[in-house]
Input
Amino acid sequence: MKNIIIASTSTIHGSGYLEYILDELSILFNEANSILFIPYARPGGISHDAYTDTARTAFAKINKAIKGIHEFENPVEAVTHAEAIFVGGGNTFVLTDQLYRNHLIEAIQTAVKSGTPYLGTSAGSNICGLTIRTTNDMPIVYPPSFNALALVPFNINPHYLDPDTNSKHMGETRETRIKEFHGFNPQPVVGLREGSWLRVSGDSIVLKGKLTARIFEKGKTPYEAEHDTELNTLN
Output
């Protein structure tokens, strides 16, 4: 039975790393003493060790130990035997590339579908969808595939931003980009605003947090999903 939190971001304005969601993480990781951290997305190009230390500091607040996957000789075995998994944010293309090259896509799918608790933030949330084609990131590397973990039956756009009506910027909005995506792809997209997350329990996918989510379905007018909305029927 899947036990997942898919969070738009790791850090909201005025709060420390994962601080806004630590109470939820205490519940998610209740039965785990140690969490396997996957730092492959490397925000700002920081080292795997430095990124793991950031996660370790945050999880120490709820008495959970962190071990970076790069510290293991065999990444697949590390996932297979993990009590829990956390995939952090950064660049989604770099993350996806490393997951494929280390043969971890199927390993993570199997572990999570078997009940291993999973937390994703930002890029780590992008990969929970069907593909990574709705990420906001620059394609600075070329992964073997854009197909992702498919832990939920739609795509995700973390850090979703609404158009700023006071801005003089004339470039494309997030909504415009997602409409472009639907010109070539059929998958629904959940625009997940910062401070919100999806709580997946088995087949249930519920929007959590104080903000609504923007839902995009091909051929339909985008609409808002309220807090506690069940999203498992999107497909």
